[in-house]
């Protein structure tokens, strides 16, 4: 029991499609002894971890700090038993992924930790929409933000960051989209600012809804269907259209995953 | 000569390390008939395109609009000859990659186009620093921005976006870092705001310089050595340290690339 502890790899699983994971992440999964994975990780991504024990530590929206402490402890315990521990997170670990708590806990326990970046959902959505987040002549900056509607004085920070950005992408926001639109219009954005809501970016069930802040404010029905969704705002989205489509060629996805598995 | 045109894939090559490309991108490179690549793409990434004709269309900072029109034309011509055309761009195509001009030109010519997202440099830098861009309790948003120092009234937009963000990452900025720091302090940020400059994120020659806005304003020497660099600003970077280090395990990189090539 005195052997050196293993390494914990905090790995971005990418936006959803299993072939949008990095080569490094795929190799680490193939080598992993144990994988702790989030709720939104695709089964075909998990399948890359052929020889690993796989443990769901599902939580969405990062609300459960007790659960977070429990995850930290499990990662430390796993590193004391296994050489290659993978903590697999949807998207990129360092963007709204609560990676820092895990990194800090591992460091405090003397466990080595590495972070493997991933493709974040906003970039996958932009790719599928074929709309650049920083279209030349229209947008020179983009902000990624999690809004917090009705949370007192701290709430104003997210509004300022959006109102002062050329393009804004909100994560974990679609459920509050009407209230968010109202806040942004109250804060000076005009009702005609284009909005597109993208659900399940990069997955066959991807759905995009093009609208404006004004329409969104008046929309009482829920515009998403339970999948992870982004609220994207800015002039660049004026050309976005509503659509529901299997944009992803599943044969290509399967082939890439099979190749990675057999490599 | 009447066969249907091919597909042009605008592909993100990721931040630099060849194993931080996606599985989808690696498969497309392996299938490509012809690849047009940017100056910053790693040779081992290009090597994934085993059977393709490889054409450098190097430009940095996207300054040459004549060159951009020339690239557009070459992509269209290539799609009329080849089934699989890859346009390989550093980082992610939709973030400061001028992908939109190419997408629009291809559409106008009736050529089908697909975009494959990539890991953007800011996320690779965050991973190597092991500092989350959205550390809980400290940052709920991050802005990605290209500054434009001394470009008249339009210049103020980038300053506003940074001053109203919890965390900011500037691309293509390191060469003007002293002037940028001065502008931000003039605009109300305090001199003690932490800054880290990350050059060659994810590559063996990665270098990180931790400083503050005040120090940066007074620094006349150039803090980078010609590699692509990010200027990262915000409270989350208070724990950053200066370092010059081969953080990347080259053996692991080589193994992943070899596996992808043989798949």
Largest beta sheet of chain A, briefly?
6 strands, mixed
Q: Write down how many β-strands of chain A occur, each being a DSSP E stretch of 2 or more residues.
A: 11
What is the 3D shape of chain A?
elongated
* Helix content bin of chain A: 25-40%
What amount of the residues of chain A lies in strands?
15-25%
Give the class of chain A from helix and strand content and strand pairing. Answer: alpha/beta
Count of DSSP H/I helices of chain A: 9
Any chance you could write out the topology, listing elements then pairs?
Two copies of one chain form a homodimer.
Chain A: E1 7-12, H1 23-31, E2 34-37, H2 43-46, E3 53-56, H3 65-79, E4 84-89, H4 99-108, E5 112-116, H5 121-129, E6 141-145, H6 156-163, E7 167-171, H7 177-186, E8 194-199, E9 207-212, H8 213-217, E10 229-234, E11 243-244, H9 250-262
Parallel strand pairs in A: 1-4, 1-5, 2-3, 2-4, 6-7
Antiparallel strand pairs in A: 7-10, 8-9, 8-10, 9-11
What does this structure look like?
2 copies of one chain form a homodimer. With 263 residues, chain A is an alpha/beta fold. Chain A is built from 9 helices and 11 strands. Chain A has 2 domains: 7-119, Tetrapyrrole methylase, N-terminal domain (Cobalt-precorrin-4 Transmethylase, domain 1, 3-Layer(aba) Sandwich); 122-244, Methyltransferase, Cobalt-precorrin-4 Transmethylase, Domain 2 (2-Layer Sandwich). Helices cover 32% and strands 21% of the residues of chain A. In chain A, the strands form 2 sheets. Chain A has a 6-stranded mixed sheet, with helices on both faces. Chain A starts with 6 loop residues before the first strand and ends with a helix.
